[in-house]
Write a structure and sequence with these properties.
By secondary structure, this protein is α+β, with helices and mostly antiparallel strands. Helix content is 30%, strand content 23%. The chain has a 5-stranded mixed beta sheet, sandwiched between helices. InterPro entries: Acyl_CoA_acyltransferase, Bact_Acetyltransf, GNAT_dom.
């Protein structure tokens, strides 16, 4: 793995969105995934989100945040040509280590319902489906 993992900064936004848009199964939300939304995320959760850069090109990202009790991972994406080399696991490991420093009880993530490859990846990595909860949402 030649890619370098570093903290995500707002200047990465356009490249991150381009990666999301080129990745099937990524649900880009108009408010929270807007430039302003990502700016808020990075400001409220400094140092938690990461990107992977290979030969000057952004090839991966993982958003991480917490609410003081639970951590959250979102939009963990690796460019297709670099998948299977451990880059996602490295980004996830970096995010989890940074989240552990906040003494949180658990970390959650969402997988789009029909994204079978993502579900297989996360389950292989040791994550499990929570059948005792159903996520409910309300648009603001």
């Amino acid at each position: 793995m030649g890619a370098q993992i570093r903290e995500m900064v707002l200047a990465d936004y356009e490249a991150v969105v381009a990666l999301w848009k080129s990745t099937p199964g990524v649900d880009i939300r108009p408010v929270t995934d807007s430039r302003e939304g990502i700016e808020r995320l990075l400001a409220r959760n400094p140092g938690l989100s990461v990107v992977a850069v290979n030969d000057g090109e952004l090839v991966g990202c993982a958003l991480a945040s917490h609410d003081g009790r639970r951590g959250f991972l979102q939009h963990v994406v690796v460019a297709p040509e670099l998948r299977g080399q451990g880059l996602a696991r490295a980004m996830i490991g970096t995010c989890l280590e940074r989240l552990r420093q906040h003494h949180l009880g658990m970390v959650h993530l969402d997988v789009v319902v029909d994204n079978e490859s993502a579900m297989a990846f996360w389950q292989k990595a040791g994550w499990h489906r929570v059948d005792t909860l159903t996520r409910l949402s309300l648009a603001l």
